[in-house]
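sorry to bug you again but im stuck and you know this stuff better than me. what follows is a protein written twice so to speak, once as letters and once as structure tokens for the fold. mainly i need to know what kind of three dimensional shape the backbone takes. anything you notice is useful, everything is just below:
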Amino acid sequence: MAGRLSGEEIETALAALQGWRREGEALVRDIPITPDNYGWLSEAVMNEADAMDHHPGIERTGEGIRFRVSTHSAGGVTPLDVELAARIDQVVEGAARDRG
């Protein structure tokens, strides 16, 4: 497994991940959705995560859904987290296109 990214590497990755931010030792994105969209969106993201064998934290927020990615065994953000964040973006973008 690739090692933990430096702060500079994380900032470079965040420049390509619209809507993501660094929060402690994780990448975080909040997405406003209606409550009835939480289930299918979290399931779609988990399907991508299962394919990578790397799972995000997913939580319901007052305005929608929050994704948090980090690699606990590395103690921070790794290239795998950046890849998962990009895949989450693809799921969200695809859902937006599908839903109109």
Remarks:
- The first helix runs from residue 7 to 16.
- Strands lie at 21-23, 26-32, 57-60, 64-69.
- Residues 52 and 83 are 9 Å apart (CA to CA).
- The first strand starts at residue 21 and ends at 23.
